[in-house]
Amino acid sequence: MTLGEKIKKARIEAGLSQEQLSEKLGVSRSAVAKWESGKGLPDIDNLKNLSKLLNASIDYLLDDGETLDEMVMREPYNLSEYGKGLKSSKKNRVIRDKFPNAEIYSLLAYQKLTKGEKIVDNALGFFTDAPFGMPEFLNYLKNNDKRFYLVEKDGKQFFVTVTDEFIETRQLANRIDSKKFEIGNWKFKKTGKI
Fold first, then answer.
1. Cβ–Cβ contacts within 10 Å for residue 177, how many?
2. Per residue in 17-33, pLDDT tens?
3. Which of 108, 113, 153, 171 is a good FRET partner for 95, with 20 to 30 A between their CA atoms?
4. How many domains does the chain divide into?
């Protein structure tokens, strides 16, 4: 689904005409029509305002992979309320508490390297004593507080990220049945049910 199609879908779901949306954004109706038809793009300020007005995340609007689509909810929580033990065990309790009667799969996540990071990784490995995989290691350290889960409940699938401060739940538009899959710039592998 293109950005324009997503804007149109979200606008219709919000019960707004192109004219009403254009008035709320302070742009012309033809600008909204161009965005929806793919003949133009909203600037960053209009994109932020569209996100707020249409209750659609910027990630949803800009993601071209179509895997994450229908719903995104971000809820804060207090990790210390989930007992003692390792953070990973506490986060497993958080997800079980959020989805008590669901099938929950823990996911192993790898952030894909950009072309620039791959070049830096190869240069570091060839020209210094640094081991290969440094950018991957740095990405791991940067995202170490995140745990990822695939949840199946009532015929729907949810992609859930649990950090130390919040739980983010995204309803998937397309079903994921394979053991390995990609969403955005991340690769995931199911490691088993929890």
1. 7
2. 999 999 999 999 999 99
3. 113
4. 2
